[in-house]
Each structure stands twice: as structure tokens, then as C-alpha cells.
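Appendix B, Record 12. Input sequence as logged:
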Amino acid sequence: MKTLEIIFWISLFIVFYTYIGYGILLYAMVKIKEAFAKPKSFILPKDEELPEVTLFITAYNEEMIVDEKMSNSLELNYPEEKLHIVWVTDGSSDATNERLKRWPEAKVLFQPKRQGKTAAMNRGMKLVKTPIVVFTDANTMINAEAVRNIVKAFADPKVGCVAGEKRITVQTKDGAAAGGEGFYWKYESTLKALDARLYSAVGAAGELFAVRRELFCEMDPDTLLDDFVLSLRIAMQGYKIDYCSEAYAVESGSADIKEEEKRKIRISAGGLQSIWRLRALLNPLKYGMLNFQYISHRVLRWSLTPVLLFLLFPLNVILLSYGKSYITYGIIMVLQILFYLTAIYGQYLSAKEIKAKVLFIPYYFFFMNISVFKGIAYLWAHKDSGVWEKARRSNNKS
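Logged structural output:
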């Protein structure tokens, strides 16, 4: 019974650390670091000294968003002659390419065979010559100063990748998918910013991130989280991933919880795949602080913590049945029951659009952890394939 108690408390600690404790510790470490070392600031070069940049967009059947994305790209505040817009549209069978023909500013790289986003990135990057490449999704719009702010971050020679901020549009009333995703990304953005201030952000989001072209590493075509794997392989070369909240991409939340489930399962599967492919990063002696951040922020979420989260309840029941400290274990049991009840209530509300989106948090948290287990099945069923079904967004454009 003593062994079960130890397992219970270790499990409780890891779950708490993964979702709350790491954020608290990270905040404290950043404050201590910045108390002794002033952060460096870099000045953006004059227009004539700015580097050439490629805006790299991979797209599959995005005819409904092409015009809006091109208008957004041309409104970016960066010298026109130094900004190159490249679309890689492998496998598109709709009018994406026809619509792009209306935009002479765009260079289109098309092949009839669809092999997935990672394969498209590998192929397209062989033709890119600019020193900085900014990756962005077709269905996300970026702010006018995004490229300038990204270039400014690269003024630090230690920075090899810049992660932009992902923002989910918030409506007065949202469903569980959009509401939960919005809360999640606000929390994620806070952690990423703190990670970068401590040492390095742990990965980048594909909606908006940039790399030095010479550091691009060709990836296996079946890679599910190309943005995550690419950015961390750059960090493993000794560079840092900076986080730039002044460069942000905006998109709508998933259309509904079923569409969000597709996304979460793929991300969970990609997370497990990434842990294996980045296994060298699990060596603390070689990677030090980056290793600590990687395990704390990513590895635990995608592997051990979901298992321990759902193990807590049966362990709690067993310990109470053996008469172990009714007050301590009883309080924890009540808190767990309340969590699951609020998650069930959140599921009941999931198809409704409500103002009090905080009610979706327990359900989204539960749903996110369940997706890890579904991700294992997804990874097995889709091995050797980098093609995946994209989730529809609530604006119905993609």
C-alpha cells in the first residue's frame, strides 16, 4: 500500500508540474535571470540594409482564401523588392492555382502529386535563395509589421529561428472548440514568451515562424509536426528560438469540437513522433537548459502526464477504500469529481455558443489529454504518410 501512495503522490506532482508548476517555476527563473542580466536590444536596420525575405506558403485546395491571403501579404510593411512570395501547392485539385495566376507577385511551385506539407516544404526550400524564410499558413493573416519584427529578432546572431504568436479570433459567443482553443493559446503564448526569455522557446507554430535558410534541415516526408521538428533541430545546432509577440498570425477557431478533435489527434500523434525523432534532445548532459525546457513543456504533455492524470482517480479510490487519511485523500477525490463533472457539463455545452467561455476549460483540458491516446492509434494508422485532413475553421473558409 505504501508503494501505491508513492505512485499516487508522484503522479499528482507530475500532473501539477506539467500544467501549472512549470509555469510558476519558469516565471521565477526568468525574474531571477533578468535581475542579474539586462536583456539585449537590437535595432532594426534601415530599409536599404534589410535582408531579402521569402514569405513561404504551403497550400492544398485553398481557393477560398487565396485572394485574402495575397492581399494580406502585399499589405506587409516591408520593402516590396525585398519580399518574395512563394506558394507551394502540391496536389491542389481545386481553383487554387487558377486564382494565384491573378497575382503576378506570387511565385507558384506546383506538382500534381500530393505528398503532404513536409514534402512540399522540402521541395520548395531547394529553390529559395533569400537568407531568411518566413513560413505562414494560407488560412492565417499576419500583422503588417510582422516581417520587420521578425527580421529585427534575427539581428541577434544567436537566433536561428523566430516563432511568431498565434492568435485565435474570439467572438462574443463561441463554442467549445474555438473558446477552448483560444484559452489554450493564450496560456501557450505566455509560456513560450517566458521560455524565450529564459533561454529558448521550445518549438514554433506553423501559422507563423521564420528560419535562417542555411539552417533549414530537410525532414522525413511523413513528419506530422514540421514546424516543431524543424525549429528544434535548429536549436539543437546551438541556436536559439526567439519568440516575437509583435509578429502574430490570426485565424478562427475550429468550426466545432469534431473538427478540433482532428487537429488535436494529429498534433498528439505528431508529438509522440517528434519525441522519438528528437530523442537525442533527451540528453541533459549535452543540451542542458534546452533539455529541461523541452521535457517540462513538451515531452511530459505528450507522453507521461496524460497517463498519470487518468491513473489518479482509481488510485484515489483504492487508497480511500483502505482507509488512508480520509481528509487528505477525500479532499483530492472531491476535487477530481468536480473536475470530471465540470468537464461533462462542458461537453454538454460544447455544441452551444456561450459568452462564459471559461466553462469550456475543464472539458477542453480533458479532451486534450484524451487526444493523446487517440494520437497513438492515429500514428499507427498513418505511418509513412505526411498527408492529413485539415480541420475546418469557424469562418467556413478552410
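The beta strands are 53-58, 83-88, 106-109, 132-137, 141-142, 159-168, 208-212, 240-251.
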